[in-house]
Amino acid sequence: MAHIYVTGHRNPDTDTIASAIGYAELKGRLDPENLYAPARLGEVNAQTRWALEKSGAGEPKLLKHIMLRVKDVMNDVTTARKNDPLRNVGLTMAKENISQVPIVDDDGALVGIVTEKDLARMYVRESREASTFVSTPVSVHSMVEVLEGELLVGEDRDASGKLWVISMSVDSMGQSMETGDIVVIGDRTEGQRRAIELGAGILVVSNGVRPDDEILRMAEEKGVTVVLSPLDSYVTSRMIQLSVPCWEVMTGDPLSVNPEELLADITNDVMAVHYRAAIAVDDDGVPLGILTRTDLLNPEPRKVLLVDHAEKGQSVPGVEQAQVVEILDHHHVGNIETRIPIPATFDPVGSTATLIVERYKANGIRPEESTAKMLLAAVLSDTVIFNSPTTTDRDREVARYLEGMLDLDAREFGMEMFEASSDVSDLSAEEIIGRDQKEYALGDAGTMSISQIETVGAGLLERKSEMLDALEGLRQSNGYLFAALMVTDIVEGGTDLLCVGECDPIERVFDQQARDNVINLPGVMSRKKQVAPRLLAAF
User: Fold this and answer.
1) How far is 94 from 320, CA to CA, in rounded Å?
2) How far is CA 115 from CA 101, 122, 290, 338, in A?
3) DSSP E strands: which ranges in 155-297?
4) Which of 44, 246, 312, 390 is deepest in the core (most CB within 10 A)?
5) Domain stop point among 401, 421, 441
6) pLDDT of 206
7) What is the pLDDT of residue 130?
8) What pLDDT score does 332 carry?
9) Is there a single domain that holds both residue 98 and residue 184?
10) Same structural domain for residues 30 and 130?
């Protein structure tokens, strides 16, 4: 299933979080072929925390960025144990059409990798002289396994001699053979007897023809192991070569990566190793997936659905690299660009949650109770309990619908929410400014920042000096033309706007003189409708 993140803007407010939760639920029910996951781009503020606790809704997962990670493109991985016969690895490569197999130890941790090149190198090395297992002993058990044969005499042990396929006469057999060698021979009784007399370590009889009882008794007396192979002599010899354990031919210390690493950060490393692959491992070194050069060619981007914003500066980091599948917003058209046409809604209502509830109703679907409470909290938050000039009849209608569904009074619910979250005495000035802060591009003039906090009463202005210092720090660290904080009193229905930097445009737009960096704006409640648009128009 495609994984589509539904997320609002940075410094999330209640509408952003509720919209992510509500729209992810609705889209998931309308489009079960895809997985819609609500996400957040920052820590939730006190008001949203209250709404989450009051509703019982789960807090969306923090999405740090939308750039491609290793885990987004890696494939399932098939591993082999280090003591597994090499033939098993070759069969796995052929069956699954892969060119490398990671090798793990007895605890499942990555220790190496076997590639097609490793197999080819072994064949080239063995093709010029008699195969030997002096440095790479092979066990009888592995030999029987790869041959799919039968152990007739002897027990499992390691063999470390040379490998001979007998096609010569019996008289010439002793010229090159040594004690402990492995001898492959067909249905030739005299040759079998001669190999035993010469002290062969293992006698492998090919073509599935069982040796005479006399030969078996002789082998047992001489301590010679006898294996019956159903294959012809040539194939039997090649299979025996593939009986060696994986660790004998693997490339050690393969490139491993963390699944969360950015694709861009590991691409050069993948291209630098001869096997052109990286193994994604967990904290214990256990392989979770494999990433090859092919996976790096035009990988499919991560998918994101944007709610409550359409500004790149307010969106998830890396959004320009992602596939934006839809935008649902109640602000102005922003600067998000897409490569293909997508559904995009910019509808001037008081809250994005209003648009989402309307979609539930249009599709004959009722949101879960916890989701409904979050959506109601969002409508009341963004419209400041219907006191904001952005409020529309559609917002009021949605609130009435949710009231009936939840059997509660919307205004009482809203007042309880604002009163519970208006006390910011335990927050630092930086936290107050950052909890609902948005930046806006002003073309060649630069960028402005406008934060907002809703309060009950004017007590926060007693910390004006502290707020101005924090605003100046924010302005300097980000290079803003000016940085402002709207302190909005929901009871009095007005805003005191604190500003640092080049604040002349604000004074001109609102025809109000700043007094000690504070501009009084009676009746101004909405950043979205009454402040940001007028300032953007001034540039």
Assistant:
1) 40
2) 6, 11, 13, 40
3) 158-159, 163-165, 182-185, 202-205, 225-228, 251-252, 256-257, 277-281, 287-292
4) 246
5) 421
6) 93
7) 58
8) 82
9) yes
10) no
Instruction: Look at the block and give the residue holding tokens 């101004």.
Output: 524
Task: Measure the CA–CA gap between 272 and 489, rounded to whole angstroms.
Answer: 60
SS3 assignment, position 73: helix
Look at residue 333 in the predicted model and tell me its pLDDT: 87
163 domain residue, yes or no: yes
> Which pLDDT score, from 0 to 100, does residue 124 have?
61
Q: Which letter does DSSP use for residue 343 in this model? A: -
What is the signed CA dihedral for 14, 19, 25, 29, rounded to 10 degrees?
Answer: 160
Query: From CA 186, how far away is CA 145, in angstroms rounded?
Result: 19
CB 312 within 8 A of CB 335: yes
- Between CA 327 and CA 23 the distance in angstroms is 11
What is the reported pLDDT for 326? Answer: 97
Amino acid making up residue 465: S
Residue 36 confidence (pLDDT): 98
User: pLDDT digit string (tens) for 104-153?
Assistant: 999 999 999 999 888 777 766 555 555 777 777 888 888 898 888 999 99
How many other β-carbons are positioned within 10 Å of the β-carbon of residue 336? 19
Nearest to 383 by CA among 422, 346, 349: 349
The pLDDT of residue 176: 75
Read off the CATH number of the domain in which 194 is found.
Answer: 3.40.1390.20
Domain housing 235? 86-248
CATH number, residue 468: 3.10.310.20
pLDDT under 70: residue ranges of the chain: 1, 123-130, 174, 458
- Report the predicted TM-score, pTM, of the whole model to 2 decimal places: 0.68
Query: Which of 421, 448, 482 is a domain's end point?
Result: 421
**What CATH number does residue 393 fall under?**
3.90.1640.10
DSSP H helical ranges for 251-294? 263-272
Is residue 274, in this structure, part of any structural domain at all? no
